[in-house]
Design goal:
By secondary structure, this protein is of the alpha/beta class. It contains 14 helices and 16 strands. The chain is globular. The N and C termini lie far apart (65 Å). The structure holds S-adenosylmethionine. S-adenosylmethionine binds next to helix 1 and helix 4.
Length: 375
């Protein structure tokens, strides 16, 4: 049996009967749970609470939505103008989540949740449409397989289940680890594709402190139980950085492991990240000061920020560092006067002179310490 088949079977069972060994204790917001049906609460197989990151007006995508618990919690937070999409590949789980949709819409005030069928590593392909297509076009030959591939490609382009750059916040609760290792890079690329530029990601999942050996990965029970498919703790963050996300960080980290198997610790974490905006970075004279307490820190592009020193930053990086994505770590300093913009090409570690940032001594023709800028 493949790991995918094992995952299908385990979560079909989980949709029918509560599975005690799939539960990882989580402190959810009781107020948000108050209007949820008990069956949805009981069939909770999450390991964190990504609903904490939802803002009013967000379009939220929940990867591997299961019983729909996080979707129904998020729906209360997005308000009337927001929307929540739960994606799951399992018909039994989708059935369970949809069973309460009308009742929940009434309680919440509008029908702002949709549950769709798809694989999270292939968010462009609508599996409900595929089921309908296969019912009308059954596969009997290799020629049929080739035609199906062409149809799937066309669907991904012309009718994607989740469109490019359409989501404000991608969340997930204990699902990424269930995706086959060979598909994990593709999965994170898909998350990047669907997130709006400037959009956010908050993923609760399980990570391991050491790389998981092959014999554990072949163990169906360990894999479908959210254990042996876990990414190693550094590889998890790195995968998001490699896909192009910025401000990638562990926002939650369980001090106690959830499980220890063969001396490997598996713990619940939540990572947060941002998809950078697409516009070209410009040098307009902005600076930031890293508050400390460390003597220096580096961003994902290798730019250093020294404690207490005015560092030259592009307008794009300035917006990001002072947006709250990096907590309160940076003091933002606007240019005294917005001088002629030019493409950002300063060397990592470039300083910004006080001349460029204090109004009284701002020069009409500023000399940048950061090399190569027009000024
Ligand atoms: C551990 S449960 C978590 C469910 C839910 N997020 C929660 O908090 O209770 C995993 C869910 O992800 C779904 N799932 C697993 N792999 C998936 C994949 N590759 N694509 C879509 N759904 C997947 C399963 O069907 C199941 O509903």
């Amino acid at each position: 049996m493949s790991v995918e088949t094992g995952v299908f079977e385990r979560y079909s069972e989980g949709a029918q009967t509560q599975q005690a060994d799939l539960c990882c204790p989580v402190d959810y917001d009781r107020e948000l749970l108050a209007i949820l049906p008990q069956e949805i609460i009981d069939k909770d197989y999450g390991c964190g609470d990504p609903s904490r990151y939802v803002k009013k007006g967000d379009i939220v995508l929940d990867l591997g939505s299961g019983s729909g618990k996080i979707c129904y919690m998020a729906a209360q937070l997005v308000g009337k103008s927001g929307k929540v999409i739960g994606v799951d590949m399992n018909d039994d789980m989708l059935g369970l989540a949809r069973k309460y949709q009308a009742k929940m819409a009434e309680k919440i005030g509008s029908d702002r949740v949709a549950f769709v069928k798809g694989q999270i590593q292939d968010l462009a392909l609508d599996l409900q449409a595929l089921d309908a297509h296969l019912a009308e076009n059954p596969i009997h030959s290799s020629q049929d397989v080739i035609s199906l591939r062409t149809w799937q490609e066309q669907q991904r382009t012309e009718n994607p289940l989740i469109k490019d750059s359409s989501i404000d916040l991608v969340i997930s609760n204990c699902v990424l680890n269930l995706v086959h290792d060979s598909d994990k890079e593709k999965l994170i690329k898909e998350i990047f594709r669907v997130t709006k530029p400037g959009g956010r990601v908050a993923i609760a999942d399980i990570v391991s402190d050491e790389f998981v050996p092959a014999h554990m990965k072949k163990d169906q029970k360990l894999w479908s139980g959210c254990i042996s498919g876990a990414l190693q703790e550094h590889a998890f963050l790195e995968a998001f950085v490699n896909a192009g996300f910025v401000a990638v960080a562990y926002d939650k980290w369980a001090s106690e492991p959830w499980q220890v198997v063969e001396d490997i610790e598996f713990r619940s974490v939540t990572i947060t990240a941002i998809k950078p905006k697409e516009e070209m970075a410009q040098d307009r004279g902005h600076a930031v000061i890293y508050r400390g307490p460390y003597s220096e820190v580096y961003d994902d592009d290798g730019y250093a920020y020294f404690k207490g020193i005015r560092m030259a930053v592009s307008d794009k990086m300035y917006a990001l560092l002072t947006s709250g994505a990096y907590g309160e770590d940076f003091i933002g300093i606007e240019p005294a006067e917005d001088f002629a913009t030019c493409p950002w090409n300063a060397e990592p570690g470039s300083l910004r002179s006080t001349d460029q940032t204090k109004g009284s001594s701002h020069k009409k023709d500023p000399i940048h310490i950061s090399d190569g800028c027009c000024g």
